[in-house]
UniProtKB/TrEMBL annotation:
It comes from Acaryochloris marina (strain MBIC 11017). Keywords: ATP-binding, Cell membrane, Ion transport, Iron, Iron transport, Membrane, Nucleotide-binding, Plasmid, Transport. GO terms for molecular function: ATP binding; ATP hydrolysis activity. It is a peripheral membrane protein. It comes from the Bacteria. The lineage of its organism: Bacteria, Bacillati, Cyanobacteriota, Cyanophyceae, Acaryochloridales. One of its GO terms (biological process) is iron ion transport. PANTHER family: IRON(3+)-HYDROXAMATE IMPORT ATP-BINDING PROTEIN FHUC. GO terms for cellular component: plasma membrane. It is found in: Cell membrane. Residues 10-246 form the ABC transporter domain. Its main location: membrane. This is Probable iron(III) dicitrate ABC transporter.
Length: 277
């Protein structure tokens, strides 16, 4: 069990999360390192998205505690959390007719108050978020009129405009083509390296997870199967036991990180035929 929560950005103790009475996360102890990129991997339905919602207080625990630094997240106000932690869930929705700029501007709401209305800093942050996600030219478009990839980038811009020390992102590359996937991941990497932001995200692509993650958490059936540096976590045994998939792990010839080569039925059958010959 983690005893010093101040050493981590987010910590859970005996965390239990459930939907409609069904337990998804059970007695989970997890520590998210400060200033690092942590990536959650695992098969569909294993609890990755549920865990992210629990970390962001979108889902109230049935048992256990989530700590934001040294403080129980349950005891903090919503505005206090929103100033420190930005969360982009899977499949977010917005009111019909909302423009991209209006959506991104919502990221500044935690910084507003009765005595502090829209400021030059708010405007600067919104323009920066639109620019860095390459959404400035679409700022006056309604979200409804955008492609799935453009909408995803708009939501990412809103999260960035919030300007928090911690970012929780559930599949941020969803709907994006390969080029835009790399742009988003490179952007998050730059934010981590240059500004020291703590980033936690769910990714399905294991090879992207190894390239961009400092800390990998492999989840199986609502529990942590293994966590640590990608070279420690990404093994053929882990892929078999977590994903039920035979694979070969080699060194990425470009990045030097673990590279997972899945071995499907076609390859296995072809290999068996070759052996028989």
């Amino acid at each position: 069990m983690i005893t010093d929560t101040t050493a981590y950005a987010l910590t859970t103790r005996k965390l239990k999360l459930a939907y409609e009475g069904k337990v998804i996360i059970e007695s989970l102890d997890l520590a998210i390192p400060t200033g690092k990129i942590t990536i959650l991997v695992g098969p569909n339905g294993c609890g990755k998205s549920t865990l992210l919602k629990g970390l962001g207080r979108l889902l109230k625990p049935k048992h256990g505690v989530v700590y934001l630094g040294s403080e129980s997240i349950a005891k903090l106000s919503s505005k206090a959390i929103a100033k420190r932690l930005g969360l982009l869930p899977q499949g977010p929705t917005a009111p019909e007719g909302l423009t991209v700029r209006d959506l991104v501007a919502q990221g500044r709401y935690p910084h507003q108050g009765w005595l502090q209305q829209w400021s030059k800093d708010d405007e600067k942050q919104v323009n920066w978020a639109l620019s860095i996600t390459q959404m400035h030219e679409f700022s006056h478009y309604a979200l409804d009129n955008l492609s799935g990839g453009q909408r995803q980038r708009a939501w990412i811009a809103m999260t960035l405009a919030q300007d928090t020390e911690i970012l929780l992102l559930d599949e941020p590359t969803t709907y994006l083509d390969l080029a835009h996937q790399m742009e988003v991941l490179d952007l998050l990497y730059d934010l981590n390296q240059e500004q020291g932001r703590t980033i936690v995200m769910v990714l399905h692509d294991l090879n992207q997870a190894c390239r961009y993650g400092d800390h990998l958490v492999a989840i199986r059936d609502g529990r942590v199967y293994k966590q640590g540096h990608p070279e420690r976590v990404m093994t053929e045994t882990m892929v078999q036991e977590v994903f039920g998939l035979e694979s070969q792990i080699v060194s990425d010839p470009v990045a030097g990180t673990p590279l997972c080569i899945p071995i499907g039925r076609k390859v296995i059958q072809a290999r068996d035929v070759t052996w028989k010959l």
